[in-house]
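Blackboard transcription, Thursday session:
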Amino acid sequence: MPAAAALMPGLVLHGSGHFAQGNRATAYSLLKWEGVGVGALLVGATGLALTGASRHTVSLLALTSMAGAGLLAITWLADLYGVLAPAGGTGDPLRQMPWLQATAGVKWVDDPTLSGSVLVGTSLQVWTRRWRLCPSAWFAANGDTSRMEGDAAYRFVGPVATGQAATGSFVDLELGAYHHRYQESQKLAFPSRFRITGVQAQLQTRLDLLTIAPTLRGAFIEGSAGVGIGAYRYPDVHATVANTILLGGFAFGLYLGKTAQRWGQWRVFYNHRHDDFVGGLKTYGLGSGALGYFGTDVRAFLTQRWGVVADVAAGSAIVSTLSLVYRYGQVSL
Amino acid sequence: MKTYLVLSMLLVCGCVGVADDRAQRDTQVGHLQAGAMRVDVQDGLAAVRAIEPGRVSLWAQAPSLTITLTVPAGMAEASLRIENVLVDATLRAPGVTTTLVAAPVPTEKTWALRGLAPGANTLFLSAPDAASLAPWQFAVLADVQERLDDVQDIYDRINLEPGVRFVVFSGDLTRRGTDKQLQQFQAAMKNLRVPLYATLGNHELGTRDDIFHEYFGRGNFRFVHAGLQFTLLDSASATLAPVVYDWLDEWLAEGLDRLHFVFMHIPPLDPVGTRNGAFASRLEASKLLSRLALGKVDMTIYGHVHSFYAFNNAGIPAFITGGGGAIPERLDGIGRHFMVVDVDPARGLSRAGVVRVD
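(Written on the board underneath:)
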């Protein structure tokens, strides 16, 4: 009954599942945040329409719309989770991070307009006090495409490698750089070749929903916002142009497992990014271009040290990644 | 609820090949058969609006057309009506007598054809300056959308530009691309003294994505006039169909030794990157721009953003001219406008200017 209520009328009135369960405080809280989401979406969308997406206001209004849409999606998923999850939730957060994680994997890119469909790559994540360093690199099997990224993030609040946090919630400021290289076969009449080199800064946050209601233990939400600037270089014609990019997104996720040895997390997310392998969403009808992409990812550790990471995302391309992950250091829930 | 429906539809309908059907449809434009009578327009540069025994009606998408009219034995006469033609365009056909019998507006002509031979008859529509390399002008417009009722203001202003030979339209003719709206757009064009060659914008996809082709013709095409190559691309879905890159390679090769301008609705990169009124994928955008630069394209002109921008992409001079009347970008001080481009093909020079309407 609560699950059915979470679907209908819960799809419209978020919190209906909890209301049917008799948990009115959580129901009203979810409904309230849905209202905030609707309000933000209306303000953002109306503002965009009224200003004609003016260059002076578009970033703020787009982020407001994104936040509104995120709250709308997240409050419904939270209601559904709260009435379906087992008592105590599906899992607990990592409250202490391993100081080292290394991955190696394969990425499949189904992009109808670009070459380089299979890539291999690796990444590292190293914690030192409140700083997290994350270099990564992906290379196409045919050598024509590669992407390297490097992020340095400072964690203001949340789990680190040097001690235990109270929850899995965090607030990070992430500074990053990336370099994307692409070139086509010289057999083509006009083989495209470009390089994109950019820097970016974004705020990334996670909130454990246990802080909202006990029934939401094991679920979390994420939000991010930032901006980047890239140099788009075309070496064959010796041309370079600069272009900015709005970064942001939201996610809903679950912790899976209550022991460090068998632990994981699953997320569904929206990423506003347009300049990576996935790219923004292309749709039938008149809405292509402005939106980013949707995806889901899962991280699962089956031993103290070893796990797998898998994701799939759909935008201009459909991109799937499967990686093996190794972690080292103290881990605790 | 509506938001969820929209999001759900985006997830369900989101597809990496959203422009493929339209590109396929391009290949069918300009070719139609009715009984034993058939019309084929070279390179699909005209939409066949009607064909019936003894009568053919076309909508031209280029100043010069090569038309093959196949008729059965016994049909020595026919009428050919072509809309959207240059006022001084003439029709000639070896072995066939062509007589202009009606020209109700400057851009519409009907010819009586006599002496048609059974089988294929080739007709040539051309203008006196088709092969000239003397300096000349054309205008560019985009994004009329919901201001269709007021587009006459813009046409009246274009009519005051004596040197403008025709208008190139970079998409978003209408608000939702319905039959009624496209009919209204073409009806309004009767007061324009020059033809208007258009590709489609994302707003032409608001109802179905095949209506534009019925009324105007191809979304991806190219033609040459007076020493300048015009390539119009269908970027209405913030991408190009993969097959269009193959066509583009041929068109770029053709245009290497002459002035070559490329037009499309959604720009590969928005100069205001945080807005991303641009291709969905910046990787694809960069691929396209790299290719256009290698093909020595001299100018790119886009719509979609309802303002005027002059910038460069991959070293190619670029303009956005979305001043047809759709909700304007505020605080930019531009308003409704169109562009006039002066070209000097003999010297390989071009210069673009803005004409404000309001």
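Lecturer's comment: Chain B has a mean pLDDT of 95.
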